[in-house]
Amino acid sequence: xxxxxxxxxxxxxxxxxxxxxxxxxxxxxxxxxxxxxxxxxxxxxxxxxxxxxxxxxxxxxxxxxxxxxxxxxxxxxxxxxxxxxxxxxxxxxxxxxxxxxxxxxxxxxxxxxxxxxxxxxxxxxxxxxxxxxxxxxxxxxxxxxxxxxxx
Length: 151
Prior knowledge:
By secondary structure, the chain is an alpha+beta fold. It is built from 5 helices and 7 strands. The radius of gyration is 21 Å and the shape is extended.
C-alpha cells in the first residue's frame, strides 16, 4: 500500500502514514447504538440497535432441541418475541430502562399485527437489516464475475 493511502478509517499524517486509535476494551465505551421512536396503541417506545449480548440472548432463548442431543433448530417466532423484548426502551438515553421484562412475553404476543409489524420494521432498520439498507449495501457490493461464485 502506498504512503498516504488508508484501507479503512484513520487520519493521514503529514509524513503520509495512517494513524488509527487502537480499541481499548478497558476504556468506557459510549452508547452509539442507532434508535428509533415507534408508536404503539397506548404509547411510544424507543427501539434500539441490539448489542452482541442482546443478539446472543435472543438466539440462546430461541433454540429448540431436535432429535439428537447436539442438534438444535431456531424457533423464529420465539426469536422475534425476544428481539422485541430486548430492543424496546423507555427513551433514547444510554441508561433508559427496557419497556418489557422477561415476564411480559404474553403482552408482546397480544400486540396487534400492525403494531407488531412497526416494531419488527424498526428492529430491522436500527440493526441494518431493513430492505433499504440491504439494497444500499448491494449497490456498493461488486458483483462476482460471470461463472464464479460470490463470496
